[in-house]
Amino acid sequence: MRRSDLFQKNKLTRTITVFIILLIISLLLIFTVGFKLLMNSSIFVANLFSKNSAQALNKTTDVYGSVSIDNIPTATNSAKFIVSGSVVNYDKLEFFLNDEKVKEVDLKASDNFSEEIGDLVKGSNEVFIKALSSNNKSKKSTNIYTVLFKQEKPKLEISQPNDKEVISQSETLLKGSTDKEVFVKIDDLPVVVDVNGNFQTNLRLKEGDNAILIVALDIAGNSETKTLTVIYQKE
Fold first, then answer.
1. DSSP string computed for 116-150
2. 208-232 pLDDT per residue, tens
3. Is the pTM of this model over 0.85?
4. CATH 1.20.1260.10 is right for the domain spanning 66-149
5. Which residue from 40, 63, 202, 229 has the highest number of Cβ atoms inside 10 Å of its Cβ?
6. Does pLDDT of 53 surpass 60?
């Protein structure tokens, strides 16, 4: 073998040897540093997914819990009243009247509640309910409701006809006035009351005495009653 051929063969051998060494080193790096990097990346992704899942679960839990008032009077003539509603995923209810806690109830198996609360003050009162979990970490409040407490009877005045008035026609006009936002019935039939509290209606009369019953009822349940007698005599 010529010297030049031998030199080329040795050079090729050295090149292959260096390549093999570099390949082994690369493989070692991949299986050490690369494996650790892969493991760290996997752990990071797993933790991130776990954190997002926990946040999603908490959000779902918060959204799922609810409390609502289904029945509450807008006005009443009693200092105490019943409030009822439903609650989901909470363990305790606190009832607030004019920003003061007046009652606390531990919930049982039922998701519905009906409780009496008071004492109302004359005029407008604000009512709301707060629902809480057993550890007080989760809570939710209802909307604020206004309840009017009123015990005074509504005004009721009849301007015509007069009591015991004798009328020669079979029909007469009854006119009167009351407070605003009051319902009026005449002989159990509702009549229209305008924004100023005035009302009127035509009455058909029978011959002789006609007893007419007028009732005014406000939104709190207070009522005022008047009875008139109109006498129909033919000419």
1. EE-PPPSEEEEEEEEEE-TTSSSEEE---EEEEE-
2. 999 999 999 999 999 999 999 999 9
3. no
4. no
5. 229
6. no
Distance (Å, whole) CA 195 – CA 78: 26
To which residue do tokens 């909307």 refer? 143
38 DSSP assignment: H
CA separation, residue 128 to residues 64, 71, 98, 150, 168 (Å): 20, 12, 9, 20, 59
- Model confidence over 91-131: pLDDT tens digits? 999 999 999 999 999 987 668 899 999 899 999 999 999 99
Residue type, 216: A
Domain 156-232 has CATH 3.30.465.10: no
Sheet strands side by side (includes 171-178) = 156-160, 171-178, 198-204
Domain boundaries defined on the chain: 1-64, 66-149, 156-232
How many CA atoms does the CB half-sphere of 42 hold within 13 Å?
Answer: 6
Query: How far is 203 from 192, CA to CA, in rounded Å?
Result: 14
Give the whole-angstrom CA distance, residue 212 versus residue 45. Answer: 84
- 35 secondary structure, DSSP code: H
